[in-house]
Give the backbone structure.
Amino acid sequence: MTSPGNPERSEPAFDAAERPMLEGWLDFHRETLAMKCAGLTDAQLREASVPPSALTLLGLVQHLAEVERYWFREILEGAELPDLYSTEEDPDGDFMVTASTTWAGTEPVWRAEIAAARESAAAFRLDDLSQGISSSGEPFSLRWIYMHMIEEYAQHNGHADLVRERVDGATGK
């Protein structure tokens, strides 16, 4: 199974208000990850291309599905949800893929978590505080969560760029 050939990605507006700007940049980075996966076979998406690292493009998508779920639903809303891929025995399980891990099975989970994250965030203002708290006991504002998610995607899109280049030589934004 091949990943989608041409995901849509729009540049964030240059003059948007704060919330649309944050949402625009987060969506930009979400679609950047989809672009890094576009046009590859499942085998290529599972390829750990920089040994000894086991990092793969599908593993990054699984991880970011888990991150979307954690920050927007568990921390922001206070929902108690099971992890999607990680376990107590394997806290990095979200990065791990097997021979049966596919784009067709992984991408809809990631997209569903993005949709759920948008729905969760829609019920909060930027200054509203989360139900979940930090290790120091402090709640997070939605603004902080947006900024952190942009940072999280930007960091992992850098990883995805390197992995993709190693898999098939493709580079780009």
Q: What stands out?
A: The mean pLDDT is 94. The CA atoms of residues 59 and 97 lie 6 Å apart. The beta strands are 129-133, 139-141.
